[in-house]
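User: Please predict the structure of the protein below. I'd like the answer in structure-token form so I can feed it into my own downstream comparison script.

Assistant: Understood. Taking the following sequence of 183 residues as input:
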Amino acid sequence: MTGSGLTSERLAYLDLMREIEDFLYAEADLLDERDYDPWLDLFTDDVIYWMPMRKNVSFEDRAKETTAEDDLAWFHDDKDTLIKRVRQLQTGIHWADEPISRVAHVITNIRLAEPVTSLADGEKLTTKCRFIVYRNRLETETDILVGRREDTLLRTGDSLKIARRKILLDQSVLMAKNLTMFF
């Protein structure tokens, strides 16, 4: 090992991780600023944006804690559905978000699901992270949603796109009145 321990492979890994972190943090900023059109551009045309439901199960049944992709879900959207959800919010008359909510996304614990040091054009990789989404609405409505995400990212030229997002809330009963925010 060299004195600094920074081999070219390690530097390539750190560079890729920094690019992924910057991408996910910039996405959170777009959501917090309600800048939805550039946010939609971060997704591939065939994206799957999915939040399965969580169930309370015994330890021995823990493999059944999360609903399957062909089962019930809080949402299971494609690009067209995401666009429709955004357009509905952009009307300014969405009943569940008028007046508009104040939302803040905290993204943390970003890591690669498998060790990769580079991502060539057309290649995909999976990231995992934790999130907190804070929403305040009207005078007294506050929601704090905590969970984890699994994102499949696709390299397209010099940029990244989200090809798949699985969102797991760390609650089995939704305490929020609605899910008008994005994760």
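That's the full token string. Helices lie at 8-32, 36-40, 79-90.
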